Amino acid sequence: MNIDLNLKIGGAAGQGLQTTGMALAKTLKKSGFHVFATQYYLSRVRGGHNTFQIRISDSPVFAMTETVDILLALDGESITQHMSELKEGVVVVDSDVIDVKENADSIFHVPMLKIAKDVCGDKIYSNSVSMGAVIGLLCLELSNLEFILKAAFKKKGDGVIQNNIDAARAGYNYVKENYPGGCKFEVSDPGKKEEMMLVNGNEAVGLGALAAGVQFLAAYPMTPSTGVMTYVAANADKFNVVVEQAEDEIAALNMILGASFAGARSMTTTSGGGFSLMTEALGLASITETPAVIFLCQRPGPATGLPTMTEQGDLQFVLNAAQGEFPRCILAPGTPEECFYLTTEAFNIADKYQIPVFVMSDQYLADSLFTCPRFDTSKVLVERHLLSDQELRTKKEEYKRYKLTPLGISPRALPGQEGVLVVADSDEHDEFGHINEDPVNRIKMNDKRMKKLEVLREEMPEAKVYGSSDASISLMGWGSTYGSLAEVVDILNDGGKSVNLVYFTHIHPIPVEPTKKLLAKAKKTVCVENNSTGQFSRLLKVDADINVTEHILRYDGKPFSPEFIIAALKEKGVI
Amino acid sequence: MVSIEDYGKFETAWCPGCGNFGILKAIKQALVNLGRSPHEVFIASGIGQSSKLPHYLKCNAFNGLHGRSLPPATGAKIANHEMTVLAVTGDGDCYGEGGNHFLHTVRRNPDITMIVHDNQIYGLTKGQASPTSEIGMKTKVQTHGVFNMPLNPLSLAISLDCSFVSRGYAGNISHLSKLIEKAIEHKGLSLVDVLQPCVSFNKLNTFKWYSERVYEMNESGYELNDRVRAFEKSLEWGDKIPLGVFYVNEKPSFEDYLDVLVQGPLYKNTPKTELVEELIDGFI
Ligand SMILES: Cc1ncc(C[n+]2csc(CCOP(=O)(O)OP(=O)(O)O)c2C)c(N)n1
Ligand code: SF4
User: Is the CB of A210 less than 8 angstroms away from the CB of B273?
Assistant: First the structure.
């Protein structure tokens, strides 16, 4: 990595942080950089202190770091809170608007409001002035920003586009003429112009659902899952998807079970609190053997917790939610690419095994933007596992929804198909689906359902290894911690250590022997998780009898940075 | 031709003499009169004595959770709107545990027929008060007698502008089956609240008690879309209890708003997954 630059925009909600941040992230991506951007925001619509952080590099980046090169301060609070994160950096601030108490060389005044008024006659263009200023500090060409502004304001007409471009150019020129450090923050154009996407985790899940042919989505809004619901809703007409905002999460899951039972590919989206309400219907999905995809985007709990922060605190809950014993599958993406592909996989597993399948994400992954290679839709297969009319016509016996089979999977017909009646029940039932409380039947049906878990376990891919397979220290993680962990591996190996990352996307059921093998060579295993009790290592212990030697846990509502992990490894004497 | 025999004969887990038998007969009769074959019929039910009904006739069925008959019924209707979808439920199931779904399903107005076995008691859990139990009814839980105001399902439904509101009686099967027929034929959410004696636990509202009080309304006597009149009629309860259709409000059903259903049932739709490429272009 030759280029590694961090830009942080700080300000109150409602100040246009998101607009400025998105436009800059897109511009930098268009300039050929790898971009990672993440947001820190509070649960309020206006005010509070929020940040939008962008890291750019000439190599792939998947994590945020804790030092800042350019701080664009839209309020005084940004300077107070983040000045200390600057090493050799600069604070860009409009001192005409903000009362700057700090007096340091690093503070660089750009009269954004004045420029906006002078050039365009309206202060609303000061965001564009600030964007131009940032591009000027980086000593990049202005053309990519102009392109992005054109696209962003296309609907508002040529006048607005021109004003934004003029404002950006004025900000750019101001920096060129006045910044005493000249091209101190110059980042040379990396030249790579291959097709990369800039996408966040929630959009990638939404794309995955559409690529998988979702037909019905019912959900109740809850941060940070709502982005998937709105993404699918925004494209519903084009894709022939029905999206319904249910009256509550109980209705949402029950509704998709009805739809799925009747043949529509269905999913719901929620977060921990909403999922708490869905637990009874989760069991219903299992005993009725109705496919269901549940996108669960975690935030810290319990109860309402920290609505806009991140945590991986719901794993044990999802593993154990609902009464009784039954199979479920949990997938946990760590990057937008995985969000996309694993969501499509979730639908196929749900249809094949006729079980509930979770895609577990978290606020950090949901809201962070990543550059990644274009999603390859040719890799996506839509596998429905349904009996065709033809197969039904030639059947010899009366249709049994819960026919006992060696793998526990019963051939699935749909209600409304001629020649069959399909009956499902939440009570224990016989092969036809009718209530049956006989103990022998109970054992057969329970075994049938649990059998699916073991068959699925064989099919689940083993964890991925990042770094050398015979390292003496294995870091372990699941889901959204991937980026920071991979970077830690690079940093430590560059420093002469022998470290790899064993990283899990297929969380449950875990293939036991392959997983043990992956970890056999490591002298130390360190499980890194965004929760306070080491929930994933508990799963490894219970599911695969694997003991982890060390834990690094974070549960203050924030994601891991590579620095945080390295400091913890040192503190624990692992390195 | 569809006949009663096509709907089969099953052993039930109901007490002899229970009002549920009358409702079952009326449902079968209505489906036969409408010429619906079992495979065209989908019944979602909750949990309770009443909710076992779909097991006692041939049809497609989703016997789900207590209070939750309406959401799966709605989901199934969206997935395949060519099916005749019924939600069979109890007063505890629908007005108690599932009250929220009742409110919002009325608002949503899918083309579903809700048949509520209103026995003013919880049968399956052996005789506790339900949301429609009368004031003063003593049970093992309501030891001093019920003092919570009973819910009036018809008034509530009319106040929410439910598309079709009616009341039947399990002791008058021919009237009830006609009512169910009308409800099924009506496009939009239809409520059929059925007075159903529970011979085991409700010692107050017995067959005798009802038979002395119920009367069939003369529907030609007033405009069925007169909401105020319907509301007034729904408040009549005591020595005389009206049966029949109280209110009809023709309006678009939930499915009418779903343009995608014009081409056929949603589940048969081939998703336009190829369009994902266009969306991906937007992220480049
Ligand atoms: C979540 C949940 N709570 C409670 C029950 C227990 N339960 C089963 S049926 C029932 C009430 C039944 O009353 P009603 O709906 O009026 O039906 P009926 O048996 O009278 O026909 C209750 C409380 C349950 N199955 N699930
Ligand atoms: S308990 Fe009451 S409602 Fe239930 S079957 Fe017996 S009589 Fe009917």
Answer: yes
